[in-house]
Structures are given as structure tokens and as C-alpha cells.
Amino acid sequence: MSFFSLDSKRFEKFTFNGKFMILCKVGEYEKHKSTLGEKNKSIIYDAYLNNDTFSDVQILIGKEKFVGHKLALSAHSPVFQRMFCHEMKESISNKVEIEEMDPKVFTEVLRFMYAGKVENLNDTAEEILIADDRYEINELKLICEKSLISKIKLENILELLSFAEKHNADYIKKYCFENFVVKDLETFVKLEGYRDFLKSHTTLLAGWFTEI
Questions:
Q1: Residue 4 backbone class (left: φ over 0; alpha: ψ -120 to 50; beta: rest)
Q2: Phi/psi of residue 9, each to 5°?
Q3: pLDDT in tens, 59-68
Q4: pLDDT for residue 160
Q5: In 3D, which of 152, 126, 156 has the Cα closest to residue 140?
Q6: Are 155 and 188 in contact (CB under 8 A)?
Q7: What is the pLDDT at residue 77?
Q8: In the chain, where are the structural domains located?
Q9: CATH class given for the domain over 152-212
Q10: Which CATH class is domain 41-149?
């Protein structure tokens, strides 16, 4: 027993020579990342944090040496991925030399990439964010930005905005715009140091003022 008959006038417009036609629109499928997978991908490498087992690269910061795994580093950092996927000196020598970074900061960057967590963030958020921006570790960068906005007040907002602009911290800039500039523009433009800030960040402020 069928639910409907193809001879029914109701479905005549969908039939041709007694055959039932199905019309559909084909579009490009947008691939979505699994939130669960993103959240837990670091846990896979937790046991190998600074562990020689299966390590295939050394990271040198001054006199400090770290051991790493190209797969784990590449999974979190597009910069490391490009470094190891092309015939760059780091890929050939299996050594990465990092300058102008405190080994303690890189320890926390590694901890995040391998274990999905970070320690001492209150004291090192700015330094870690600089490292994140340098190696494009966006997940940890956002964590640092959220930590820093808890310290924002009128007395230091221009300083933190300058920092955010220099290191592409868009979350901080958006927070400052929505919670300080939009809410009290008159006070913002009267801040000590605003004129100097205006001269060096004209593009940022021009973009903001067009939205108010």
C-alpha cells in the first residue's frame, strides 16, 4: 500500500512520462569544526610535554632547551606548521631557535599546546599574548585577552589599547570600544595622553567614530 498515487492530480506537476521527479538545490557544504574536538585536541599530547619520547625537534631559547613534537606544535600553530612543512632550516635541522622570548613564557605556551591549560596567567598574560600573536595560537591568545580585560580601567585603557593594536588583540579593542568609548565618549577623549594616542592610532579611532 502506497501513501500516494503518482496518478493523483495532486502530484501531476512533479511527474514526467509517469516518472516522479525530485528537484533539489545543490550548494556548497560548509565544514564546521567540532567544538569538542578543538577543546580536547591538546589532551592527546599531554603525556609528551617536554618529553623525549617520540620527540623530533628541539626548541632553543638562549641557554634553555625544550624538546617537542612537530605534530603537536603544528596542530596549534600555523607558523610551526609552515616551518615544518617546507624546506626551511628548522625542518631540515630539527631545531628551532627562538629569540626575544622568556623561556618561562614559552613553557606556558608549550603547556597549552600539549595539555590545554596555562599557569601564572595573571602575571604573564601580556608576554604570553605576544608569543601567541607571533605564532598565531589564537585559542590561547583569546584566553590572554579575556584575562587582560579584567584589568582595564580609565587610567590604563590607552596603554592597553596601544598594546592591543600592536599585537592584533581584536577582542580587547572591541571590549574597550563597547564598554568605554561608546558608553562615555566625552570622558574617553578627555583622558590624559589621548592627543598622543590619537596621533599614533588615527586609523583605529577613525573606524570607531564612524560606528558611533
A1: beta
A2: -60, -25
A3: 999 999 999 9
A4: 95
A5: 126
A6: no
A7: 96
A8: 41-149, 152-212
A9: mainly alpha
A10: alpha beta
Beta carbons within 8 Å of 87's beta carbon, 6+ residues apart: none
C-alpha cell belonging to residue 6: 503518482
The residue to which cell 558608553 is assigned: 183
Distance of CA 165 to the CA centre of its chain: 15
Strand boundaries in the chain, DSSP class E: 15-16, 19-20, 57-61, 64-68, 95-97
Long-range contacts: 71-74, Cβ < 8 Å, 24+? Answer: 72/44, 72/45, 72/48, 72/113, 72/114, 73/113
Pairwise CA distance, residues 19 & 52, whole Å: 66
- pLDDT the model gives residue 12: 58
Low-confidence ranges of the chain (pLDDT < 50): 1-6, 25, 29-38
How is residue 7 written as a grid cell?
Answer: 496518478
Q: Which residues pair with 80 in a beta bridge?
A: none
CA atoms within 13 A on the CB side of 43: 5
